[in-house]
Specification:
Layout: E1 8-11, H1 17-28, E2 32-37, H2 41-53, E3 57-62, H3 68-82, E4 87-90, H4 107-138, E5 148-152, H5 165-185, E6 191-197, H6 203-206, H7 209-217, H8 229-240, E7 251-254
Parallel strand pairs: 1-2, 1-4, 2-3, 4-5, 5-6, 6-7
This protein binds NADP nicotinamide-adenine-dinucleotide phosphate.
């Protein structure tokens, strides 16, 4: 069992990209971070080294969040190490392997995106929520108050990209997932939030870098730069500190102002 005074965060898909940025910002607050990953163990170990450098500590846990047995093992391992979970960060997600027009796109790609990007977080949140309710009933609390849940969705919740409809539909579902768990868990003091990142520099956007470089130069959103994983990480850390005690189901746009309508 590790140091029980540290808040315990479970960050899915934390080996690389946005998840790694989140893990590092939580480490700066002194968290123990369970770094979940799908297949890239080396990236997860690199992330853990950065977590330790930043003042946190953690463990890496391989688990495919789209798989029910893996989700159960993931929670089992976190509880085995720390005995509780104070903050769930649903971050893991994938882009479609092929960006296909919705008039051509395959059912196989749809199933993959729904399973990883929506069904996985939905049922992982169910498992963690049950555990969090039990912690609240037992009076187990981190230094930052009752447990919290945040989901990393996307501007794709409301932006129609006709060459990745599967991704948009899965992300739109996460918006409703946030509302549902926020409504259900408020009575326990467990608050639930959503972060909608814009275009963030990670492996996921590496293949479309030139497209986004041009959009940024052309002013597609007001803050004229790429988002960084730390931009999302800092928002996750701010929520984790418990500084929004009369807000739940809240959406935080971390998108350089993309969501603004301008004329
Ligand atoms: P990324 O660089 O491709 O990293 C994805 C992470 O998710 C990796 O750590 C990967 O693990 C993990 N992962 C993938 N499938 C998984 C599964 N089935 N089970 C567990 N972990 C899995 O992606 P990113 O850009 O950081 O994106 C992170 C999240 O932010 C995603 O939900 C994405 O949709 C969302 N988002 C991204 C952007 C953007 O512009 N980048 C914008 C809006 C929203 P391995 O390392 O083991 O492969």
């Amino acid at each position: 069992m590790s140091d029980s005074t540290r808040p315990v965060s479970l960050v899915t898909g934390a080996g690389r990209g946005i998840g790694r940025g989140i893990a590092i910002e939580l480490a700066k607050l002194g968290h123990s971070v369970a770094v979940n990953y799908a297949g890239n163990a080396a990236a997860a170990e690199e992330c853990l080294a950065l977590v330790r450098q930043a003042g946190g500590e953690g463990i890496a846990i391989q688990a495919d969040i789209s798989n029910a047995e893996d989700r159960e093992r993931l929670i089992f391992d976190v509880l085995g190490e720390y005995g509780r979970v104070d903050y769930l960060v649903n971050n893991a997600g994938v882009a479609p392997n092929v960006r296909a027009d919705i008039l051509d796109a395959s059912e196989e790609s749809f199933d993959r995106l729904i399973n990883i990007n929506l069904k996985g977080p939905y049922f992982l949140t169910q498992l963690v929520a049950i555990q969090m309710v039990d912690q609240v009933k037992r009076g187990l609390e981190s230094p930052f108050g009752p447990p919290k849940i945040v989901t990393i969705s996307s501007i794709s919740v409301y932006t129609a990209s006709v060459n990745r409809g599967d991704y948009c539909i899965a992300k739109a579902g996460l918006g409703m997932m946030t509302a549902l768990y926020a409504a259900r868990l408020a009575e326990y003091g467990i608050f639930v939030y959503e972060i909608r990142p814009g275009v963030i520099a990670t492996d996921m956007t590496g293949g479309v870098k030139e497209k986004y470089d041009k959009l940024i130069a052309d002013g597609a959103w007001p803050i004229k730069r790429w988002g960084e994983p730390s931009d999302v990480g800092r928002a996750v850390a701010a929520i984790g500190r418990g500084d929004f005690p009369y807000s739940t189901g809240e959406v935080f746009n971390v998108d350089g102002g993309f969501h603004l309508r301008t004329l």
